[in-house]
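R.M. (postdoc): so does anyone remember the format we settled on? I'll just put the structure tokens first.
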């Protein structure tokens, strides 16, 4: 009997890994693609069918996706795209398939609704409020006595897009403008609201979890490396991270509450937290998806857990095998540019081998690059694996230090000369 999987947005590395896992089991994968403007998804050749939809029209998209799912007799529906998780929850509910709570799914996508859900469920989270303009932000900071730095972020983007750590009142206007102009992918309508959030100093981690029928298994805690300055871009992930038992318990307790707060009942979650001294843990945000940045691949290398196979089982209503088969360690280091210009290449990249299973450059020669302001600005990465965390980290640090990114300054644009007036006859 053929098993049919409906995949919303089959583009990107995470979707590719899910498709590969499905194909290895002999499943058919049917794709739902965006047909909106420049965000049109590339179409993998392995898809059994393709349904182009306009995700900017959610009601129409819902009806088209549900009708197509019934036509192909879909046995499961999934997505690896955070922006489409609310639509997926509604599709699964309409089809009677395992999924998340459709009434709360938007809270895992919209940061303002997320904060409200966190407060209702007693999730420890930074203080935050909606601001109407830079002047309003400064007024509220003064009235509430919040110190700088603070964080300004858009309501509904991902990958650090439009997020700024603001160190003084003079930079509020620029941060506000960045947040207001950040746009979701697929042409989805942006929530124009802007969130002002308390800035917390501490170590950054994420929790990788899978939930089935409301029961959650935490696969591991991931240590995050981020840039400093106004734009915090993730430049490394390492897992599994071993922490003191009191710290681990504090992190997992808050992650569990966050998962429940946003209605995740069947699927993956990626919970980002900050831990301050004395194991004080605060949840920054949560996504109803596998962690991006190749975290799924790190799980396979370090723990022997196949999260893509597990996601398929959860979506099909079958018991998911989450038993670790390895006791290893894996880290990824991202390559970024420190200059604006045209990418010419990268020297000193590591060579693939037993402990470096993946090396990849995303940027092509001649592509425009600039200092990373969001995760999508990263131009490449490599993965290092092993059994000793200390050894893997030292090796990754040494390899990363050897990489040199060659960027040619962009040519200055010469203004066009004023047109010579032509006398009419």
């Amino acid at each position: 009997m053929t098993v049919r999987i409906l995949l919303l947005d089959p583009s990107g590395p995470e979707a590719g890994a899910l498709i590969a896992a499905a194909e290895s089991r002999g499943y058919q994968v049917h794709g739902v693609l965006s047909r909106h403007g420049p965000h049109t998804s590339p179409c993998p050749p392995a898809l059994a069918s393709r349904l182009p939809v306009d995700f900017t029209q959610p009601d129409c998209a819902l009806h088209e996706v549900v009708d197509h799912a019934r036509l192909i007799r879909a046995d499961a529906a999934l997505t690896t795209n955070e922006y489409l998780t609310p639509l997926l929850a509604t599709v699964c509910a309409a089809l009677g398939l395992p999924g998340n709570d459709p009434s709360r799914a938007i809270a895992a996508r919209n940061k303002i609704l997320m904060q409200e859900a966190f407060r209702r469920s007693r999730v420890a989270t930074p203080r935050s409020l909606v601001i109407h303009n830079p002047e309003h932000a400064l007024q509220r900071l003064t009235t509430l006595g919040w110190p700088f730095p603070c964080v300004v972020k858009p309501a509904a983007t991902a990958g650090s897009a439009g997020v700024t750590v603001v160190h003084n009142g003079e930079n509020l206007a620029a941060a506000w403008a960045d947040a207001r102009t950040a746009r979701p992918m697929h042409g989805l309508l942006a929530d124009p609201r802007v969130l002002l959030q308390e800035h917390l100093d501490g170590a950054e981690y994420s929790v990788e979890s899978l939930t089935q029928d409301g029961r959650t298994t935490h696969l591991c805690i991931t240590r995050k490396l981020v840039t400093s300055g106004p734009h915090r871009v993730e430049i490394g992930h390492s897992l599994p991270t071993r922490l003191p038992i009191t710290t681990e318990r504090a992190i997992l307790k808050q992650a569990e509450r966050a998962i429940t707060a946003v209605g995740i009942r069947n699927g993956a979650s990626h919970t980002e937290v900050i831990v301050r001294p004395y194991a004080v843990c605060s949840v920054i945000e949560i996504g109803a998806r596998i962690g991006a940045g190749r975290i799924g691949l790190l799980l396979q290398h370090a723990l022997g857990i196949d999260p893509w196979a597990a996601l398929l089982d959860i979506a099909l209503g079958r018991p998911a095998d989450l038993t670790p088969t390895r006791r290893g360690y894996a880290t990824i280091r991202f390559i970024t540019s420190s200059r604006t210009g045209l990418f010419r290449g990268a020297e000193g990249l590591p060579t693939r081998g037993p402990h470096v299973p993946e090396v990849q450059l995303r940027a092509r020669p001649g592509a425009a690059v600039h200092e990373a302001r969001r995760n999508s600005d990263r131009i490449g990465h490599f993965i290092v694996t092993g059994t000793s965390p200390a050894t893997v980290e030292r090796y990754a640090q040494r390899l990363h230090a050897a990489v040199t990114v060659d960027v040619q300054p962009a040519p200055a644009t010469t203004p066009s000369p004023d047109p010579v007036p032509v006398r009419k006859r």
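R.M.: ...and that's the designed sequence above, right after the tokens. Also worth knowing: The two ends are 80 Å apart (CA to CA). The chain has three domains: 4-97, 127-198, 203-408.
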